[in-house]
Amino acid sequence: MKFRNFCQLSLAIAVLCTSGLATARPANASSFSYTVQDLGTFSGGTYSDAYSVNDKGQVVGDAETPNASPLGAGSHAFLYSDGSLQDLGTLPGDNYSGASGINSQGQVVGTSSSSSGSNHAFISSGGSLQDLGTLAGGTYSIASAINNQGQVVGSANTGPSGSSIYGDKHAFISSGGSLQDLGTLGGDKYSDAYGINNQGQVVGTSYTSSSSQHAFISSGSSLEDIGTLGGNSSIARGINDKGQVVGYSQTTPDNQSFHAFVDDNGKLSDLGTLGGGSSNAYGINDLGQVVGESNTSSGSEHAFLYRDGALVDLNSLISADSGWVLEDALGINQDGQIVGYGTINGETHAFLATDPPATAVPEPDSGLGTLVLSAFGMGTWLKRFRKRKNIGG
Fold first, then answer.
1. Which end of the chain is more exposed for a tag (fewer CB within 10 A), N or C?
2. Could you tell me the pTM of the whole model?
3. What is the CATH class of 34-367?
4. Listing from the earlier edge strand, what are the strands of the sheet with 234-239?
5. 386 in helix, strand or coil?
6. 60 forms bridges with which residues in the sheet?
7. CA distances (Å), origin 136, targets 139, 147, 160, 313, 372
8. Would you kindly state where each structural domain of the chain is located, as residue ranges?
9. Per-residue model confidence as pLDDT tens digits over 315-351
10. What span, in angstroms and rounded, lies between the C-alpha atoms of 72 and 63?
């Protein structure tokens, strides 16, 4: 009886001690619990959209200015920093602008437009917008992204025939103030650049010699065809510093729906959907976390996060009573902060979603650790002793 009582006491001490250690771990240690910050709008506006976030948590996008009609016609580029939404304005004479990229130095790129539809790419540093110009012979340009070296990518037309979105429009890279034509994958009319990493690798989409539209990655001074998931068309939208590329592609030639993909060293992986027919991936960080949007089984458009091999509805990772429906995730930084847009209180607003760091689990006191080990050790020894000696309880 004494042996049993001592063993039970030892095990009870161990259980109590380990239970205390377990409760020190936060409830969400193995799951996500994102907080969503409403970035708001300009005074009098009802709409905003976020496209990119740097590692300092600075966000860029566009927001409706007061009395803009129709929706978006009077939107201006914004920079969200230190809790405030700053109107970046437009290039002289224009009435619309949108910001699409920001680097770690706070340089912002985007596009400014006039009421006639003339577009020019810009770069902003310190709040002043600088016109990046056009390719030789062209009349418009659009900036999509910027890396930490200040290299800008986008697209621009190469002549008057390129006035339509799929005219003679070529991807460009800008470094030192001049635009360099990146050419195409063999097609003679169209290419577009959407992303660039800190190694200067550029991704986008281009017509091929067979008139298909394929995603590309730059390889030196030439473009490399990434291919598709089985269909005729694919578009690359983002690239991290490991060279992993994300975008979307048709899965079969006769299927017009697109699926999000990750390209890792030439291997294209279908990320699937949130239950609907299509999905699009827009951003990836160096941890391999991917963001984008997908149709759900009910036909709604929801933002997603792809991590650890699973595509997750971002709405399932926020408080159910937040009031938000996160519709599209367009950017992610190295800390996992996500930006995009969603609806709240009947309006479309830009958001910044942050996954709070897990609370550190306190180290057990050395004496407590010794007691736990001693309790387990004594219990195990007694069990073996009773078995060896055939001692009953």
1. N
2. 0.82
3. mainly beta
4. 234-239, 245-250, 258-264, 267-272
5. helix
6. 52, 79
7. 9, 24, 11, 44, 75
8. 1-26+368-393, 34-367
9. 999 999 999 999 999 999 999 999 999 999 999 999 9
10. 8
